[in-house]
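Appendix B, example 12.
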Amino acid sequence: MGGYRTRKSVVWKLALAVSVGAGMGLPAGIPASGAPVTGLAVYGTDGAIGGLRREVYPSNAGTESHRRASRNQSLAASMAGRGQRVAGMAGRGQRVAGMAGRGSQATSTIGNKILPTIAPVAAPVAAQAAPTVLKILSPADGRMVSKHEPGVGAGLVPLAWQGIAAARSYSINLFDSTTRSAVLHGVNAGLATTYGIADSVLKYGHGYTFSVAAVTGEGVVTDTARFRVPILPELTSSTDLRLHNGEIVWENCTPGLLSSRDQFAAILAARGWTIRYTSAYRSLTYQEHLYLIAKTPIRTLSRSDAARIAAERIYHQLSRSVARPGVGDSHVAGKAFDAIVFDERGRARNSRNWRDRRVEDMARRAGLTM
């Protein structure tokens, strides 16, 4: 029955809070204050329905019930007044909170109004200071420079430097210390900090002086580096190392050459002759390696470079008749091989300086020229 008591108390308080008195425009059936109560009709808002409901309590409430109703009316009115004052203070508190929210740009809601929100500003990051020292990065001072190392583009050797913020332009110079001649003189690089020089300009075994000048509003700042190109190209690829170790490389040769090779060997075998191959495909770097060994005059070299060239000539058993390196060379294109032919007695029938005409005839039958 507790549910019932709660419901009666709520409805009773609502009735008192609405009004009990004369001149309030009450609905029919609710007596004016002070009138005898024979049966009280209470009208309250039904939260579940949103309308009015009417409940009539028995007349045995009597005059005492009316007195209690009057006291409760006064108490309810007093509490309602205090509630309004508290609500007013709460309203002023909300307005103060709104002003504080606007000051801090935090999100604040008053009624249906939402104050704007601004994302917090990140702490500033200190900018890195621009370089103030001009410095050559490549080639490094005292370094040996290979003509075939990767650079700005194919066949280029990179020249690079660390620029400075005050530079208006850069001017570069390259001097051949061996021939004592200028390779580059006063070349304007603009504001670029790299420059590619064709590797064909650089000579094997030569020393060079590279300088860069930064032109600023207050004068010129320079830096200098010296480097040297080795006497022979460096052999670093697996194919070049195989070639230098004496291996015959056939996989890069053309199918036509391989077919003629087999036919030539069959023709020689039918005669009782044999063939020994000494070379076939050569990379451009390796062809250049052989060409420099054969053609470089030792008398112009330093003692250490001269000793190396002499040792390489003995190792490769080279004469001075080596083709100039280039993409059109028959060995580089995979269209030629070198070999020695032996007759049935084991005598060589060709050399660098002569060849047996019978060898030429058999080669021609296989589609080869000598």
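The chain has seven helices and 14 strands. The CA atoms of residues 276 and 340 lie 5 Å apart.
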